[in-house]
Amino acid sequence: xxxxxxxxxxxxxxxxxxxxxxxxxxxxxxxxxxxxxxxxxxxxxxxxxxxxxxxxxxxxxxxxxxxxxxxxxxxxxxxxxxxxxxxxxxxxxxxxxxxxxxxxxxxxxxx
Length: 111
Prior knowledge:
By secondary structure, this protein is of the alpha/beta class. It has 3 helices and 4 strands, in the order E-H-E-H-E-H-E.
């Protein structure tokens, strides 16, 4: 599911994920809508921090549907800060935003 690092983009959004499978489709939809109002040059880096259950399947569907979404799967749960660091290392954006996966941080506030 990991993809080759892409060319530089205007905005990267890094999202550490632990659980939250139920809100990931809504998160991806709202991110696409919000970011598209600013630029088409964006990427979303979803970092699966050792989640169990359906998270891996949901992430696979999201990255297959939109090539601007990338998923990194950590080998186990390392915690939020190491997951963010992994996403920052992968991100190619001129600007990078970090948000939570549970929609506590509203994607509409990014612009």
